């Protein structure tokens, strides 16, 4: 009887494992659309990068209604300055302040959200940034520097110590959310296909599906323009073809 009991427990465990794996696979297979929150990130980042502040206001309202917290939207603005500069970032923040004041005057109370956690890591900022970048791209970064990093070594240091350490270590946004901000900005400013190619590949590595990235291009088309969306789609198709 004891042996039968043991066999029954093993069978139950196998069944649970099977259905757990099947459930996980189904979740991945149905992960074909961006969430409402993810969708709202795209126009906020893209319109801020373009400096289209009047269009940005309804996008900010939509983001808050979709569940983005005040701190998450502030973090989007902070993140994108690394890709489109302080002037656009600061104007975006100022516009967001106006939107919050308008909502407060209407009696709307928005969730503040969490602040960035304290960083308890004794590694140098360079090593932290290098590790973060390796996680994003899914491979190690060893060997001599090449291309622009060899031509201007200081920018490679800035990228790892500041962008991929100071900014990416802040946990207000996930890596996946940060990459969505990044590709939105790059699409909006245009003429940066090599960088867009790299970050779309990172998007795939951090969990976005091809369907979600095609949806992203559709949002760029409706909020930024057909020209920018066409250029983004060409790069995305190239990334997907190379992946296969």
Topology, pairings included?
Blueprint: H1 2-29, H2 36-50, H3 53-65, H4 70-84, H5 86-105, H6 125-137, H7 147-151, H8 153-167, H9 175-189, H10 193-205, H11 210-223, H12 226-243
Helix pairs in contact: 2-3, 2-4, 2-9, 2-11, 3-5, 4-5, 4-9, 6-8, 9-10, 10-12, 11-12
InterPro entries: 4CMD/NDH-1_regulator, AhpD-like, CMD-like
GO molecular function, one term: peroxiredoxin activity
Protein name: Carboxymuconolactone decarboxylase
Describe the structure.
With 244 residues, this protein is mainly α. The protein folds into two domains: 36-111 and 171-243, AhpD-like (Up-down Bundle); 122-170, no CATH class. The protein is 75% helix and 0% strand. The protein has twelve helices and no strands. The protein has helices at residues 2-29, 36-50, 53-65, 70-84, 86-105, 125-137, 147-151, 153-167, 175-189, 193-205, 210-223, 226-243. Helix 2 (36-50) packs across helix 4 (70-84), helix 2 packs across helix 11 and helix 4 (70-84) packs antiparallel against helix 5 (86-105). The protein is globular, with a radius of gyration of 21 Å. Residues 1-29 have low confidence and may be disordered. This is Carboxymuconolactone decarboxylase.
